[in-house]
Design a protein that fits this description.
By secondary structure, the protein is an all-alpha fold. It is built from 9 helices and no strands.
Amino acid sequence: MRLIYCRSSNMGIQERKEREKERRRSEITDAAEIIIFANGIEKAKVEDIAEQAELSKATLYLYFHNKEEIYFAISMRGQKIMLDMVEKAILSVTEIRAKILSFLKTMVQFKETYPDYFNAVLYFLTNKIQFEGKNVALHESRMSHEKYLNLWIDLIQKGKQEGVIRTELNEVNTVLLLWMQLMGFLRIYSVIEENLNEMFHIKKENMMNEYFELILQGVVK
């Protein structure tokens, strides 16, 4: 009985330590959002994040090895928001064409509503960052991206079964191409939007609708 009690007690202490660790990591991530969203990842400094979190720089390093790891935690928050939005959007309609269109529009909505999270997600998609040791969050991120891409793949497969999507398309290749094209479009358009409007008087809504239609024409029969 005594041994069981001690083991249970030790497990309780360990669980409390883990909860405290996660709470502190979350607080540091909150502080990092304020600093990084205001200054950008390149200009943000670890000491400024530590000061915002009311910690010493040495204490912060007990929870994160560097600012890239902190930014990755921010990216994970963005991934979760993005995935939740997309899943709800897909469930809100029934037809395959409508689901694809809803998927695309939701990604635009995510970019416009959470631009800083979008940039964080894109940062780790376009930069190869090495993390020290075993990183559980990195595995979770890969699982999240896989789940996101599988939502697309399931749509394409179901559309082919229903005779809506072109049967000669390879599901995985199609999804990867659509995904890269969409992320690139959202990134570039936000940079050149003002110039396009000045030169060609293009309305954003019209540009987006035509872009969506081009994508649909490429995959829908």
